[in-house]
């Protein structure tokens, strides 16, 4: 009960901070000429946090269906170290007051995830983990908005690949949630929405003209997504978590290759 109260207070405080930041941004022009390397690093870190916020909870939900619980927990603990490193990097770089406040909420959520890993795997704890993931996501989005700048064309493509990686993790988080006790319209809608968003980002990749060797990777991504999409569409009657996790991990590996191309092409 205490944890649930903390989550409610946390969500309320984060919403207030986000609203206050948005009101400030409404009277500020987007910084283009004054963008710094620090802003770029912060945007990169927020993308990492978005990705990890979904990946960590997806893997926690996998604990309900795998006998290899200690191995999965060890993996999640490593993700938490990476999450902590990204939070610290932003804290050491940002000068934005609202971002510093939001970082406190992110650090709290990260600590609560670590604590939950030491406790029994229950539906109550899983529900809290789902809440923590959304808090991390909302906080990362707010910090990114405070350091936004106009991307170059290659940066936009790089960001598209990062968003695709995040969306795969989000899709799989809800795929797992729907089958371990959280089968409700909200979670189903969130999964469907993420699938549609991934499809939109994939269109950006499909429309881009790549050199021959990278074009081959693009073709593999399209085929992989078609196969994954087929089984996601049958998820109500066919639950194959281990196979889907392996398959989507392969899809992410392919997307990373596209991301590397755009990163080097800036």
UniProtKB/TrEMBL annotation:
Q: What is this protein called?
A: Nitric oxide-responding transcriptional regulator Dnr (Crp/Fnr family)
Q: What is the lineage of its organism?
A: Bacteria, Pseudomonadati, Campylobacterota, Epsilonproteobacteria, Campylobacterales
Q: Does the keyword Signal apply?
A: yes
Q: Which UniProt keywords apply?
A: Signal
Entry annotated with the keyword Signal: yes
Tree of life domain: Bacteria
Signal peptide interval = 1-17
């Amino acid at each position: 009960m205490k944890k649930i109260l903390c989550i409610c207070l946390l969500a309320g405080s984060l919403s207030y901070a986000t609203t206050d930041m948005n009101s400030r941004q409404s009277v500020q022009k987007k910084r283009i000429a004054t963008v710094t390397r620090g802003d770029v690093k912060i945007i990169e870190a927020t993308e990492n946090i978005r990705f990890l916020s979904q990946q960590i909870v997806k893997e926690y939900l996998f604990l309900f269906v795998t006998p290899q619980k200690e191995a999965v927990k060890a993996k999640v603990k490593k993700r938490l170290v990476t999450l902590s490193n990204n939070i610290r990097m932003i804290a050491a770089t940002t000068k934005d007051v609202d971002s510093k406040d939001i970082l406190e909420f992110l650090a709290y959520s990260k600590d609560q995830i670590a604590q939950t890993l030491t406790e029994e795997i229950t539906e109550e704890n899983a529900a809290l983990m789902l809440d923590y993931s959304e808090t991390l996501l909302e906080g990362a989005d707010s910090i990114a908005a405070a350091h936004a700048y106009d991307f170059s064309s290659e940066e936009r493509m790089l960001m598209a690949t990062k968003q695709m990686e995040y969306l795969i993790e989000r899709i799989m988080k809800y795929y797992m949630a729907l089958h371990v006790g959280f089968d409700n319209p909200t979670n189903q809608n969130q999964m469907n929405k993420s699938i549609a968003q991934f499809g939109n980002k994939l269109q950006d990749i499909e429309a881009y003209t790549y050199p021959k060797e990278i074009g081959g990777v693009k073709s593999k991504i399209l085929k992989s997504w078609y196969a994954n999409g087929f089984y996601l569409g049958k998820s109500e009657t066919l639950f194959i978590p281990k196979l889907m996790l392996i398959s989507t991990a392969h899809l992410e590996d392919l997307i990373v290759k596209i991301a590397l191309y755009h990163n080097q092409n800036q």
